[in-house]
Amino acid sequence: xxxxxxxxxxxxxxxxxxxxxxxxxxxxxxxxxxxxxxxxxxxxxxxxxxxxxxxxxxxxxxxxxxxxxxxxxxxxxxxxxxxxxxxxxxxxxxxxxxxxxxxxxxxxxxxxxxxxxxxxxxxxxxxxxxxxxxxxxxxxxxxxxxxxxxxxxxxxxxxxxxxxxxxxxxxxxxxxxxxxxxxxxxxxxxxxxxxxxxxxxxxxxxxxxxxxxxxxxxxxxxxxxxxxxxxxxxxxxxxxxxxxxxxxxxxxxxxxxxxxxxxxxxxxxxxxxxxxxxxxxxxxxxxxxxxxxxxxxxxxxxxxxxxxxxxxxxxxxxxxxxxxxxxxxxxxxxxxxxxxxxxxxxxxxxxxxxxxxxxxxxxxxxxxxxxxxxxxxxxxxxxxxxxxxxxxxxxxxxxxxxxxxxxxxxxxxxxxxxxxxxxxxxxxxxxxxxxxxxxxxxxxxxxxxxxxxxxxxxxxxxxxxxxxxxxxxxxxxxxxxxxxxxxxxxxxxxxxxxxxxxxxxxxxxxxxxxxxxxxxxxxxxxxxxxxxxxxxxxxxxxxx
Length: 544
Hints:
By secondary structure, the protein is α+β, with helices and mostly antiparallel strands.
């Protein structure tokens, strides 16, 4: 083989390797198996090129094939390929749970906590994402569908990120280019905005940006977000791309980076994040100790549940996790979100590895810090509670979302939404954890809390109602109808500035009350002076 032809083969291999790297942009890191595979394949190809070159030279000289000796470079690359295979096998063995069970179980520190001390009693849910991502997609798509100038060029990304904005849950997703040609036509101005969906009250909002986002997952070539970030940090192993907005509404993509904590490949855990500004393309790396407090998606829910399962099953060794399974526990197959402070925590039930239909407790884990809290609360697991809620309205054919755990009058309780076939929230449901035959459903949060508390009293789950009802008669000095997250609420004020409220959907006859009317009200006193009115009637005023 001529030297020129040989050089051409090597050059073609280099070009192919370069194109492959640009197209797939793998991490150049010894802790990534795909890196080793690519390296091994390249070494084998180079070895073959040198070997074929020697065989051609011998054939051209008319020598016998038995006299063929592998050239030095061919041997070197073949030894390198074999060394790579040995490294992958040895690294995989060193990372196996069988040998390193205790190391895996120690990756997550779990603190045992008291349910009633940590979880405050609830009378209304404002810190839990009751709506699931599937429903958020429906509301987001409908919002964009009403904007003709946007919907013709863009769609909403399917991946919604759960974040906290001003200590309230919010799901956010960026727009994406509808096709390659629409990217090409709009690449200079970028993606114009994003969608926010409130998972508590189902409100969707489109936020238009002053400057478009050019570096997004739906873009192509150097503007593709994943390629752009990976090429700037070629040695980082990136574990996902999460769209978030800071407290001012400025968009970012949060890209957690991971590294093994056990052996060469095992116990992958977060070691930092890359924060990318999708407008300018500027990227910055933060270690786990320096991540800004507004960032929420550092540890994914899947990673946190995997770490808890390592902790729950491997704490007493690998053999016990397979055979004896003493004290082995694992999370259920889904999780929800709760806001505590300004952080997003995932919630999931904990059950035994035997796969029964009950929980022995539940765990909450912080998505920014990976802090884990375990609460020993036994009762029905989430899917049993969902079935119980659906059974209450089986004639309507509603489906339940994954529930969250709240504290109602000191009683652990599941709360969830019930959706119709179109994914719209139609009702709320509450199910007692320990006695999941105690189920309340209603069209509003206010009503479902009231009905559930009545059931708790009737079933003996609590000794007495948490509020004592009282009666009072007064002249109405003012009445207002206020739109809230849970619907319209009617506020009635007396001459001494006491306030009595009730949801309009619970009693539409409130529309009859006017300023100056004299009414008798039955209410539940409240410390803040805004009392919950359970019923009213017009009364006759007797003058002295």
